[in-house]
Description:
The complex is a heterodimer of chains A (198) and B (106). By secondary structure, chain A is mostly helical. Chain A is built from ten helices and no strands. The longest helix of chain A is centred in the C-terminal third of the chain and has 28 residues, at 170-197. The N and C termini of chain A lie far apart (63 Å). Chain B is mainly α and 106 residues long. Chain B has a domain at 31-104. The model of chain B has no long low-confidence stretch (mean pLDDT 74). The chains are: A mainly alpha (198), B mainly alpha (106). The interface between A and B is large, with 50 and 38 residues.
Amino acid sequence: MENATRQEDAEVVRRVLDGDVNAFRFLVERYGDLVVGVVRKHVPVDYLDDTVQDAFFRAYRSLPTFKNGSFPVWLSVISVRACYDFWRERYRCAELPVSAFTERHQAWLEEALSGASSESYREKGLQKEAGEILDYALAKLSPGDRMALELVYLEGRSIKEAAALLGWTSANVKVRLFRSRMKLRGLLTKQNGKRSDR
Amino acid sequence: MNIFDPDQKELDAILQQAYRAREDSQAGGQWRERVMARIREADAPGRAERFLPVFGDLVWQLAPVSCLLAVVLIAILLTLAPAQADPLQSFVTGTEEAALTQVFGV
Lengths: 198, 106
């Protein structure tokens, strides 16, 4: 089954490279959900469409480099790198979405650091605050540190997998993970300390 | 793997839950059409890129030649330097004077 899918993908790629541009639509339809699934974890929802579009366009431009492997794996790598480039672009232009850290977030964090269970957060409907605090903290990291942290700590991928997706060495991913973990801890405990001081 | 210490692993779990909540966000319906439109407007894949690798190879092949040429030119310049020093100096001071005249009317 998987082999048949691979052959079908390879055939479509060959047709596109031979000039049948419309054949690419088959790949867009088949792997659209896959790319959306990868991109929506890393990019704010407002930029989801544009980044998905960018990932597919990059894939189209890079088709000559596709070597009869697994097309979805190849496309996932391109999608992750499109997300990384999205943050690099924002970081370079200093256009990072600014999330404010409010009293409500501080109260949330204090409770979280005191050891309340994740079930109690679900029950209290405090998931929104958790998402906002996560966005606030991630926005303070560099694009590379952010991607490494998201892939390994938040998505649960292995270091090797993250390195392959980002095109880095495992050592580079480890260094970035250490750095981002320290920074995130520092950020959240500092915010909590500010509240305790009052 | 945890971000926080083991005694705060609940915070890890909460942040991971918050991260997974992003999976609920949906893309709009128009991106597929836009991808295809953009692709139809673009060059055939590989056509634009083909130039760069060829040009890139040429640059690297010419790099030793250009380095050698630079060394030879520096050697020639250093050999001729004493003879050329005065005109060079007069050019520098000449332009300085001209600039001062223009700015301050000196």
